[in-house]
Amino acid sequence: MKIKLLSRLALKNFKTLNHVMVPFILAVSTMFALEYIMLSMMANDYINTRHKTLPELMMYANVLVTILSVVFILYASRFVMKQRKKEFALNMVLGLEKRHLRLMLLIETLVQTFIIIVLSTIGGYLFGHLIFLMLNRLIQGSGIGLMDYPFDIDSAIKLWIIIVVMMTVLYMINIITVTLQSPIKLMQTQYAGEKKTRQWLIILLLGLGIIALGYGYTIALTTDGVMNALMDIFKAVLAVLVGTYFLFMSLTIFFLQQIQKISSIYYKKKNFFSISGMLSRMKANAIGIASITMLCTFLIVTLGMSLSAYRGIETQIDGALFQENEVSLFNDDIQLEKLQEEIEGIATIDQFRMSEELFVPFHIGERNQFEQVRAPGETNQSIDDIVYSVLMTEQDHNEVNDTKLKLKDNEIFISSNTDKYQGLNKIILADDQYNVKTTKKNFLGSKLGIDGLYIVVKDHSILKKIIKEYKDYNPKTQAYDISPTLNRSMHFNITKGEDQFINQIERLEEEFVIRIANHKEISKELYELNGGLIFIGIVVSIVLLIGMFLILYYKQLSEGYEDKLNYTIMKQVGLPDNLIKSTIRKQVFWLFGLPIIVALIHTAFANKIIYQLLGLLAIRDYWLFITSYSIVIILIVLIYLLMYWITSHIYYKLINESNT
User: Are 391 and 450 in contact (CB under 8 A)?
Assistant: First the structure.
């Protein structure tokens, strides 16, 4: 058969199957356009010279986005091929040989590849300008123009290679699917749903699903502390993932089967067709619905964390230093007066404030006794009871914080970045008992990314006793002989000449062997880091949205074709139109409603562990966290309803075709 004829057939397929192929091409092009944007930004000179950590962050994001894109593309391609099996079977019956089908698929793949390359490259470059400006706004970049984001040919070539490899893999999978099956088998498999679950397996999955989901929820609700949240989050996610799939494959079916046994409910005109139809749909589509549920959940969590992180940046900046500038003095022999004279010669400062801090981990034992942390395996100390603490004297605390704290001899002052230590009334520290003065104010700020204590003691004699009592374990000597070190710091604010001072920081650090932390520099670093993370969150969320839409769209399309036959049968047996439409509407509503409802339940249970995880970014404002998540949930629900409206419109259009 001539190539010309096969080319005509291939091009004709693009026209007749435009409702299947066009969404596939657009979705794949969008995902690869995002790929180009990240590749081009990793290679962008402006970003590389000004924000050195961003390219590395984008590299990780690129790997994640590529993996997600491949999964969604394979999923979408599977649905596309499923809809075309009848067409391939008819072509074989009419005389096309399998080698002709392979050639026709090759022509189609080449055309698709060309279109995807053009759309993703042009779309990526144009949309990249917007993303580039948005990224620079997120990281507080200034003086930037569109000329700073030129077209990058190397990134484009990398993208084209990725697309060609992906489309080659799809072509190989498609020809294996089509050419290894007989025409009869192809006709049968087009209308086959997802694998159905047997009755004995339903009971087993129901039990395992309840256990897995209960375990995941329990972890999410009982985990306390940032470090525990970090260690437990993956166990919780895995348990909820398994529980969701198992329960959708069993609980929904089990529930509907039980209702069928209640005659007074099941054998009513409205309920009979709805329940039996739902049962059939859930048996065939449980895995797909569970996938949409998990995508919704990941989308809410990803966007919620991104928005919370961005809104909490200013809090992080404010809590990073006691004053606007902090000089860490490593050398005891430093010429302090000369350093202060140098600084005063560069800028006008308010005053120099000196402090000495200790950083010590404690294990909180019985009767709130602060014990030495023992080496792993030496005792049964629980990691839950270990707390890292910053200690300083009353005088230093008042100086660096501009406060007037007054402690009695047997008193100690404690502030924390978490509420779990608010109940400390008396503690035993270095064998002495102290009454505790607490405050809800967080003096620790964002200095620790984990749960910690800020402890103020009466004077230096107590600090010296702590240094003597709480020594760290030395693996080389296998003894507790590493004493905590007093860190000296100098704090001040600049009232005039801050830019000149920032320009001299590097020289001062080299000349005096010190480290200077500046409010502006920290602000820049935090905006760069958090802005990069938020950018990654947004890109990943876009890919998740596209993936979710693809699954919803092709699922509705697939069910629309299958239900055309059911619709015709129901009409032939004499059911009124109103009853048929009402039955279908109920089923479609529940199939759409269940994933978002379950996703919201998952998010509600994950609320506590996600909030604690944000403590890593020093976000401790619960109201900020809740409002961020509420905004994201409203946004996702609206987008989901839009998807419902678009895909259900296509579904009803397909159903109505059978009625015309």
Answer: no
pLDDT at 501 over 80: yes
Q: What is the DSSP string of 506-559?
A: HHHHHHHTEEEEEHHHHHHHHHHHHHHHHHHHHHHHHHHHHHHHHHHHHHHHHH
Q: Is the CB of residue 433 less than 8 Å from the CB of residue 423? A: no
Total-model pTM: 0.75
The 3-state DSSP class for residue 499 equals: helix
Q: What is the mean pLDDT of the chain?
A: 82
The β-bridge partners of 456 are 392, 413
Q: Residue with structure tokens 């005096």?
A: 512
As to burial, measured by CB atoms within 10 angstroms (0-12 exposed, 13-18 middle, 19+ buried), residue 492 is buried
Instruction: Give 422's DSSP letter.
Output: T
Distance in angstroms (rounded) separating the CA atoms of residues 145 and 413: 51
Q: CA torsion angle for 200, 204, 209, 214 (degrees, to 10)?
A: 140
Residue 215: predicted pLDDT: 94
- Helices (H) then strands (E): counts for the chain: 19, 14
Percentage, residues of the chain above pLDDT 90: 14
Number of Cβ within 10 Å of residue 56's Cβ equals 11
Contacting residues for 13 by C-beta, under 8 A, at least 6 apart: 21, 84, 87, 104, 108
Which residue is listed with tokens 């090759």?
106
CB 61 within 8 A of CB 38: yes
The SS3 call for residue 329 is strand
Task: Identify each DSSP E strand in 8-54 by its residue range.
Answer: none
Q: Please give the share of the chain, as a percent, with pLDDT higher than 70.
A: 92
d(CA 244, CA 317): 39
Q: Which residues of 632-650 are buried (b: 16+ CB within 10 A; e: fewer)?
A: bbeebeeebeebbeebbee
